[in-house]
Amino acid sequence: MPQRVVVTALSSEPRKRFAQELRRLRTQRGFSLRDLQKAVGWDASLFGKMESGGTLGGPEVVQALDQYYGSGSLLLTLWEMAVGDPTQFKEQYRRYMMLESEATSLWQYSVSIVPGLLQTDAYAREVLSLGGYRGKDLDRQVEARTGRRKLLERLDDSPPFRALLSETVLRTPLRDGQAWRRQLEYLVEAGERPDITIQVLPFGAGLSGLVSTDVMFLRLLDGTTVAYTENAHRGELIEENAPVEQLQRAYDAMRDVALSPPESQSFVLRMLEEVPCEPSTSAM
């Protein structure tokens, strides 16, 4: 009789359980990742990342594996459980941060707030406090977020970064006028650097294919591109080619109708002129 699988030895965490089952089904066939690529059609690197827990993949590839292995809807069921597991979002974000630090270029669309890589300390503090952080937790989160700026401040190998900002970003000030002034000044300074490009997508450009969705694209050392999408409630790391390419097309369409970098600089400067100056203490 064939040896039975001891289910109790498998992880109770949905994401790990999914990865274990993927690995078990492949090794039962005596297949390498390359063999699986030839049999099913997706890239071997994707299967490797799915088996290591680096990504969950998409429903299409999971259904194809179920069909190939003859496992009914086992993998799809496990995949749906993993997608619904709240712990996966933290894991995805940790992996995203690792990939961000290794990226050879970055380009981002921000729909409502200044991108994290361009936030001043005061801006980050107000955004994070609105998210519920307080006290020492808030201090740690601010330090972590603003520490990301070092990625763009490396002297020898800072990656090129393009930030496409909805006009909403520049029309939503901080409560503290002087902190908002400093944030706008920082955007102007950043836009003058040769490795940073800032463009504004004006209201007049109309609707876009990324309504209410922030997205960051990372170009990696192996030439592949991954995307991290984020809204008010969750973030998702996307590594499969087809959805990444779809997001890129939407981004490119918006960039085509955005203000040019010089026009965008002028736009930010006009916003800066509208910030009330701090009252002079000498007049008191």
From TrEMBL:
SMART domains: HTH_XRE (SM00530). PROSITE patterns: HTH_CROC1 (PS50943). Pfam families: DUF5753, HTH_31. One of its GO terms (molecular function) is DNA binding. Residues 22-75 form the HTH cro/C1-type domain. InterPro entries: Cro/C1-type_HTH, DUF5753, Lambda_DNA-bd_dom_sf. It comes from the Bacteria. Gene3D superfamilies: lambda repressor-like DNA-binding domains. This is Helix-turn-helix domain-containing protein. It comes from Streptomyces sp. R08.
